[in-house]
Specification:
This protein is α/β, with parallel strands linked by helices. The protein has a domain at 77-177 and 185-295: Rossmann fold (3-Layer(aba) Sandwich). It is 24% helix and 19% strand. The chain contains eight helices and 14 strands. The protein has helices at residues 77-93, 117-135, 151-159, 189-192, 209-222, 238-241, 251-259, 294-299; strands at residues 28-29, 98-102, 144-150, 168-175, 184-186, 199-203, 229-233, 265-273, 279-284, 290-293, 308-309, 326-327, 335-338, 341-344. The strands form three sheets. Strands 5-4-3-6-7-2-8-9-10-11 form a ten-stranded mixed sheet, with helices on both faces. A two-stranded antiparallel sheet has the order 1-12. A hairpin with a 5-residue loop joins strand 8 (265-273) and strand 9 (279-284). Helix 1 crosses helix 2. The longest helix has 19 residues, at 117-135. The two termini are 23 Å apart. 41% of the residues are buried. Residues 74-290 form the DUF1995 domain.
């Protein structure tokens, strides 16, 4: 998809004061039975468990480093990038190899689609450059390979956002004769990777369904059983997790929820829900998953930075036997945190 030459992501800061937490925001926890259809408002079977209260200094996941770790929602993109850097560094110290970073680019309160597609991608490209400048040590720059979805985006990046940088820029797919019909040629990852590469970062691989399949190939062929790391940056993986792509028509893509995603750690995540029951789902590794309902937030403006910490995840959970917990209403339906992965119901 052509990138936009329009100025990048909106940087209007959202003022969110850091004020004491307060009891009162209620979510409901559920025990999910096997073979439940999660999305489309059809949670077939659950039982009420208990109400949640505001929690600080809590922790989710299996990281011992997460004790006492709690991060406030960012006030602007500069703070967001600082949090993302720290979260990624902690994940690396904990031995994570496959990581996800996901947040909106058209404003911290936006959702995918609020901005024109090309502008959102250009915004992601700009934020990737800023993240890399913060996160990658100068001596590691030439050992970092950044993948963009298509070859023409690499050319655009070299002439604009990444001009003068020493990062290795690469691509996942290249145009074919049938590009106008949505067909592209996959790139063999074994031919792209070099022995000196240590870190891979893949930017927004969501426009074409083949892009995430190539990412899985990159992970299997160049990361597994090595010391390399792979970060997926703004891949809109919620589309795959939620069943947005019907498994009947996209079996390989749908299979990623059972093959690739269970091996992935979501190190930084913001998802906004719009509408009357809108809210924000937030996580900064190794802290807990947190949710705030915007209606409650407006009614209690003194406590506008109060997030409800979601229950800890059981380390033995798996996709074959889901034990996922939390359902909170939003414009699109519900979300479920399952094995540390958010499943957004569109």
């Amino acid at each position: 998809m052509p990138l936009s030459s329009t100025p990048t992501a909106s940087r209007v800061p959202i003022a969110i004061p850091s004020l004491p937490n307060r009891k009162g925001l209620k979510c409901r926890t559920i025990q999910i039975k096997n073979n439940v259809n999660f999305c489309g408002g059809r949670i077939a079977a659950y039982k009420r468990s208990r109400n949640l209260e505001f929690v600080t200094n809590s922790v989710a996941g299996d990281s011992g480093a997460s004790v006492g770790f709690d991060v406030p929602f960012p006030s602007d993109y500069s703070k967001l990038l600082e949090q993302t850097k720290e979260a990624t560094e902690l994940a690396l110290k904990d031995g994570k190899q496959l990581m996800e970073i996901e947040f909106p680019t058209a404003g911290l309160g936006s959702v995918p689609g609020d901005g024109e597609g090309g502008i959102e991608m250009t915004g992601s490209m700009q934020l990737i450059r800023e993240f890399c400048d913060l996160f990658i040590n100068p001596e590691k720059v030439t050992r970092t390979r950044i993948f963009f979805p298509e070859a023409n985006e690499v050319e655009f990046a070299r002439k604009s956002v990444f001009g003068g940088a020493s990062f290795k820029l690469d691509y996942l797919t290249k145009p074919s004769l049938f590009e106008d019909f949505g067909f592209v040629s996959k790139v063999k990852m074994a031919d792209r990777v070099k022995p000196e590469d240590e870190m891979f970062l893949v930017g927004y691989p969501y426009f074409n369904v083949n892009e995430m399949l190539v990412v899985e190939e990159l992970y299997r062929e160049a990361v597994v059983n090595t010391a390399r790391k792979l970060i997926i940056f703004n891949g809109e993986l919620d589309r795959i997790r939620s069943g947005y792509y019907p498994p009947f028509f996209y079996p390989k893509l749908a299979a990623l929820s059972k093959t690739l995603f269970p091996e992935m750690e979501t190190v930084y995540y913001i998802h906004n829900f719009k509408g009357r029951n809108g809210g924000t789902l937030f996580r900064c590794y190794p802290g807990p998953w947190k949710y705030v309902n915007h209606l409650f937030q407006m009614a209690n403006t003194m406590f506008s930075n109060s997030f409800c910490s979601l229950p800890k995840q059981k380390s033995e959970c798996n996709y074959a036997e889901p034990c996922g917990y939390v359902v909170c209403g939003g414009w699109s339906g519900e979300f479920i945190i399952l094995q540390g992965q958010p499943i957004i119901c569109f």
